[in-house]
Write a structure and sequence with these properties.
Helix content is about 80%, strand content about 0%. The protein is mostly helical. α1 (about 1-25) packs antiparallel against α4 (about 55-90) and α1 (about 1-25) runs parallel beside α5.
């Protein structure tokens, strides 16, 4: 169970590790970032889009967080279904029932951790956009 928790937690660490560095960079104003957009450089695609609110880094971070949350959520649901079937087909074997119960508990704990991680990442990213 601890191994699963470690895998889930460390799955979100790269996304959370990038967020503070990006937040520090977000304090830089557009004027400083695009100070070189003068003369012939003003017609470049980067300078043309300098006033848009679309941010490919934040969009990518949010997409990665959504995909990880979706995949781990689907895996948790599949684990609960398989463990439920094993519990039903245990034929009164207390060891099999206890094992299936542990798997269900582990899957639900993992689902809660992934949900909490996704909420934190989404909150941080949404605050960076503002």
């Amino acid at each position: 169970m601890i191994t699963k928790l470690v895998i889930i937690v460390f799955g979100f660490l790269p996304v959370l590790a990038i967020a503070p560095a990006y937040a520090a960079a977000a304090n830089t104003t557009n004027d400083k970032l695009f100070s070189g957009c003068t003369g012939s450089a003003a017609s470049s695609p980067i300078c043309q889009n300098k006033n848009t609110t679309d941010d490919p880094v934040l969009d990518t971070m949010k997409s990665v967080a959504n995909i990880i949350a979706l995949l781990t959520g689907a895996i948790a649901v599949i684990m609960v279904i398989i463990s439920g079937i094993r519990m039903i087909t245990a034929n009164g074997n207390t060891e099999s029932i206890a094992n299936a119960r542990k798997r269900i508990t582990s899957a639900l704990v993992g689902l809660v951790i992934v949900s909490a991680s996704w909420l934190i990442v989404s909150f941080v990213i949404d605050r960076l956009i503002r």
